[in-house]
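Worked problem 6 (solution included).
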Amino acid sequence: MKHSIEEVKLKNGSRGLLIDAPGASVMDFRVAFRAGNKFVKRPDIYEVAHLMEHMAFGKNSQYADEQAYENEFTKNGAYHNAWTSDEFIVYEAECADFEWERILELQALAVAEPRFNDDELASEKGNVRSELTGYQNDYSRLIWPKLQQALGDPSLTYSERLKTINNITLKDVRDHHRRTHTANNMQFVITGSLRGRKKKIINMLEAWSLEAGETLETPITEYKNAGANLIRRKDASNVCFGFSFILPRILSAHELQVLRSLNHILNGTMSSKIFGTARKRGIVYGIGSSNSSDKWSTTWDFDGEVNSENATELFDLIAVELAKVINGDIGEVDVAAAKSYALGRHQMLAQTPSQLSGYYLYRYLSTGQFEPLDSTIKLIDNINKGEVVCIAREFMQSGISGLAAVGNMNKSVVDELWSRVLGAI
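Solution. The predicted structure is:
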């Protein structure tokens, strides 16, 4: 969508992006606080951030319970949700253009004026318990908390998180909200047809009932080499795995495009070096790679599932292709194809206000920076083979890496698989 971006800092200390998409028939609101799991006071109440997020749409200063609030919010088709990560709690809302003021006022009630109570705490404890229990049956989810711990992150596994739920009191929930949901700790991205509305939006946000507070800083994780880690499950019929390489720094916008191009070369399509070749050989149904970051570091992740009898062949293939990259053995044609793909995907990336908000939100929250979509085209155009090789070398030679797997096997099998990757790089 055609759009323009303005970063604003409000009088109350909040800051965010106002994205004007002329003619849009939808308004999209994203409001975020550094209030995720890393900001919980004590490990024994680890789930308090997640639990508070669940309770945010319950009783508030004007509505008696979640049902009353929900009925009012959605009566014209508007949508809202929230999610919790290690770093953030993010509140999302989307509505028809004609009711944007009403929806922004309602969002303010959930974010700034909740009235947490014991009844809702009890019911949401049950809901969160059910959610986390379900995750324990999803092997692809189990690997990442296990790996994060092994890498030195203070996160908990799902079974450990479940044990903290009973410890959480209403006072803990209220305290977490009070400490984290402050004006100086708030960021936002608002997208829609904003011409003639920006002043009104700013005035409304500045009127939210939030204490001034402070801008919270994400704790720095002291990462370490993790080696290979196994979650033994007797009922596992295959090997579900994930492995990571970590850089203790944030990537520039251009470097992110370079890494995304490398992911495409390795795992992007049926013609990619790892995924495409593995599918052609019939040894794996799915494997992928991606990246994530917080304010202090960037992680390059690989994940997949493979039948036990094919695991060695798959990991040998991974090792060979990673070794080729860091040795500079990739073709200019591969880099050109990755750039062409990236340009096409980029053109398709932001066709709605929601997609625009999502595109800008992630990097803005992590770094306070944003790169206009038009500028990204130039970043992609400027990618070259040397940069692809350099970014791969930096990650794989950082000395911070690890693997976690779920399967019915001995630990020695996982050690052997991981040694094949490390031996090649």
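Discussion: The mean pLDDT is 96.
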